[in-house]
Amino acid sequence: MIIFRQILGLFLLCCSAQLVAQFKPVVLENTSFEGIPHDAVTPEKWQACGLDSSPDILPGPWGVYQKPTEGNTFLGLITREDNTWEALGQKMPKPFKKERCYKFKVDLSSSPAYAGYSKPTCLRVWIGNSACDRAQLIAISPTIDHYEWKTYEFLFSTEEDYKYIIIECYYKQPSLDYYKGNLLIDNISAFEMCDRA
């Protein structure tokens, strides 16, 4: 009887540990984009996914001097008149699971300067299964046309298991033209489980 109780106790302990691990938030690395301020430099732990240039670590370059909301630096991304835009991605420490609901927050702003790339844009977030893979769009912000930082929250449901995430600057929606715009990003929260999307 004592051995049975010990085995049952170990079984329940293992099951509860698996449940805790299953519902543990997905936490990305360097979510406040820390680094030495510089143009065309991708922050540590991230990979550039744009065709023509890398993101910028701000403040300082391009005449952008907002204060970060977390840490010492933040991320700057741009859109261009030739239908290209900047993006970056990261492999997640553990994958999002199929048909689960997740939620996260991020601080967003725009800059009136940015060397002429001054029009408002929006944030798009994708998930996929290889570096820079855009398999499922999980978040799109409203047009970010304010110069102060604001926190936005997003909820989404996954269609499959996914290992990678991409964040990008994109033209306001709907948009009939391509233009020079910018987006400032800081302080991405953990991706926590939610009840429904």
Account of the 3D structure:
By secondary structure, this protein is mostly beta strands. It has a single domain (26-193), classed as Jelly Rolls. The protein is built from one helix and eleven strands; from the N terminus they run H-E-E-E-E-E-E-E-E-E-E-E. Strands 1, 2, 3, 4, 5, 6, 7, 8, 9, 10 and 11 form an eleven-stranded mixed sheet that branches. It is globular and about 75 Å long. The termini are far apart. Residues 8-21 have low confidence and may be disordered.
Largest sheet: 11 strands, mixed
What is the number of helical segments per DSSP (H or I, 4+ residues)?
A: 1
Provide the helix percentage: 10-25%
Number of domains: 1
Which strand-content bin applies to the residues?
35-45%
What CATH architecture label applies?
A: Sandwich
Q: CATH-wise, what's the superfamily?
A: Galactose-binding domain-like
CATH fold call: Jelly Rolls
Instruction: Estimate the mean pLDDT confidence.
Output: 89
Query: Span from first to last CA?
Result: 46 Å
Radius of gyration over C-alpha positions, nearest whole angstrom: 19 Å
Give the beta-strand count.
11
CATH uppermost class: Mainly Beta
Shape: globular
- The low-confidence runs, each spanning 5 or more residues with pLDDT under 50, are 8-21
Structural class: mainly beta
Order of SSEs: HEEEEEEEEEEE
